[in-house]
Amino acid sequence: MTGAHDTRRDELVGMAIAVLERDGLERFSIGEIAREAGIKPPSLYKQFRNKADIEAAMIELGFRTQAKVNRKAVAALGKAASKGQIAETLVRAYRDFGMQHPQLYRLMNDRPLPATFPPEAMDAISVDYRKLFTEPLLATGFWAWAHGLLTLELANRYESQSDVEGLWKIMVDRLVAEVERVESAE
């Protein structure tokens, strides 16, 4: 059963994410969260120890949400989906999540995880990749490749959108081929 404290805390985390997306990671502040919530900044400390605690809660929600998005996308494929189709779906879900929540994605991935971060929140998403890629190096490679492409895309580091689409297509094609190669060898 969720108590009033947890419900209010969850509401404030949602507001904090809205502020983060609106203002950006560099301008994210306690004062803006409080204004959004209609309270004075010290009132936030009834729910959170400090700004790092708020950020940890946002990161946790981000990873759990991304895992739900992944699972929903994979479930939509049906039970007969090949590992290649699942790999392609996970790549697209990963990118879509980051494009829809660019500032949250940056908060989740651009710096070390907070010391208070629960490892099981990260596992919520890692499990999806480890189930698909029986070889741990391939799971890590998938994440690293997708992360690199998306991080550069969010920072507008590519010259044109068509180049970005081509890069993602190369990743998907190579990844699917590798997954299918490993699958056929099993």
- The CATH superfamily of the largest domain is identified as Tetracycline Repressor, domain 2
Strand coverage percent:
under 5%
Number of strands: 0
The main pleated sheet reads as: none
Number of helices: 8
Question: What is the level 1 CATH name of the largest domain?
Answer: Mainly Alpha
**From the coordinates shown, what is the CATH architecture of the largest domain?**
Orthogonal Bundle
Model regions low in confidence, pLDDT < 50 over at least 5 residues: none
Give the distance, in angstroms, between the N- and C-terminal Cα atoms: 44 Å
Supply the number of structural domains: 2
Q: What is Rg?
A: 18 Å
Overall, the morphology is elongated
Helix residue percentage: over 70%
- Please state the structural category: mainly alpha
**Mean pLDDT over all positions:** 88
Q: What is the string of SSEs from the N terminus onward?
A: HHHHHHHH
Description of the structure:
This protein folds into 2 domains: 1-48, Arc Repressor Mutant, subunit A (Orthogonal Bundle), CATH 1.10.10.60; 61-185, Tetracycline Repressor, domain 2 (Orthogonal Bundle). It has 8 helices and no strands. It has helices at 4-23, 30-37, 51-77, 83-100, 102-109, 119-132, 136-154, 161-185.
Summarize this, please?
The protein is mainly α and 186 residues long.
Any descriptors?
186 residues; mainly alpha; Arc Repressor Mutant, subunit A; Tetracycline Repressor, domain 2; 2 domains; 8 helices; elongated
Secondary-structure blueprint:
Blueprint: H1 4-23, H2 30-37, H3 51-77, H4 83-100, H5 102-109, H6 119-132, H7 136-154, H8 161-185
